Amino acid sequence: MRFNGFHAATLGILAAFVAVPASAKTISVSATTPDANEKLQEALILAVPGDVVQLGAGVWKLVDGLSLDVANVTVRGAGAGEGGSVLDFTGQQGAGEGLLVTSDDVYLTNFAVLNTKGDGIKSKGADRIVYHQLRVEWTAGPNETNGAYGIYPVESTDVLIDSVYVRGASDAGIYVGQSKNIIVRDSIATENVAGIEIENSYNADVHDNIATKNTGGILVFDLPSLPMQGGHNVRVFENIVNDNSTPNFAPKGNIVASVPAGTGVLVMANRHVEIFDNIFDNNGTANVMIVGYRYEQNDPKYQPLPRQIVVRGNQHGKAGYAPKFAGGDMIAAAMGGSIPPVLWDGSGDAIVLDKVGVLSLNLPDVKTPQSEAKPSPADLSKGTPPAVLPAIKLPDAMEAKVR
């Protein structure tokens, strides 16, 4: 298993996304400068394509959120740990994110964002964005008043999240929504409601991460009434998913508020998802859950079934000993103290090739659009898996940034 991790040594930067203009420059900003908040925002406004905004070492006491809308800009700190560049939003006056990016070809690297009132770092409509060696943390630990998302790219094409650390998000630590061509790797998500979440997205690889002490480790969801839906082609592989036992602290009404504590990987209403070569251990509800969307919704185009879900080649440790769903404790008692590591609600179709027990709840059918026939549920230990999904390939210039 390849794992560079959040604490990996800083690696060289080898290339820019596009040709750097002759006027490109480095704009250095110090944490000790008077009016540091204003000076940093000014640097982000005045930057031109090709510029580097260099954050000095130290703790930045910030009261307002930051924004960047210039393409092909690098924001680089002096490190994301102690002694590095720490953007501390404990005194933030508004309820927004710490940093909002709305431009393409942006590279964010080597700094920390702490205690934002809203999301930590958000990008919207920002194609070819790289999040690298970052830390986003709510330092008091799990609390429903924490910001919803740590790392939060949405509505983007080509997203790379590499070697980040996120702790304490009241929704998802690392979240990618309504996007396509995504890689999330070599990262740590701990003490969030959802450690890593891929939602309403196409073509994603989630690998070589550690998801531990969350409510749910890794979620692959597709939800109704969003502009982009029909999530599909997601690979979850070579991750360590263990001890996801934190009680759910999401605000009421949030979809992840329904995630049972002790969930390893949860797939809901997605198509063609492969879960393979992961290490699961000590997830009290289940190592893998496969479910349909069972909430009231009025979207005639929405497909609520999980389809073509494949679980293969994983290592399963202790699981199912403290299931946190209605009736779960009684089922576990009837089965000798624990339920099997793989839990399926009975909707859609899935193939489990791991040599472990599978519990199907055989719940009532999920309503499907009239235009789509329901797939016949596959035998969970037999059948022919769908074609293996290819690896996600991002532009070479994006990969060069983090080598």
TrEMBL record:
Residues 146-293 form the Right handed beta helix domain. Keywords: Signal. Gene3D superfamilies: Single-stranded right-handed beta-helix, Pectin lyase-like. InterPro entries: Beta_helix, Para_beta_helix_rpt-2, PbH1, Pectin_lyas_fold, Pectin_lyase_fold/virulence, SO_2930-like_dom. The keyword Signal applies. Residues 366-389 are annotated as: Disordered. Residues 1-24 form the signal peptide. It holds the Pfam family Beta_helix. It comes from the Bacteria. SUPFAM superfamilies: Pectin lyase-like. This is Right handed beta helix domain-containing protein. The lineage of its organism: Bacteria, Pseudomonadati, Pseudomonadota, Alphaproteobacteria, Sphingomonadales.
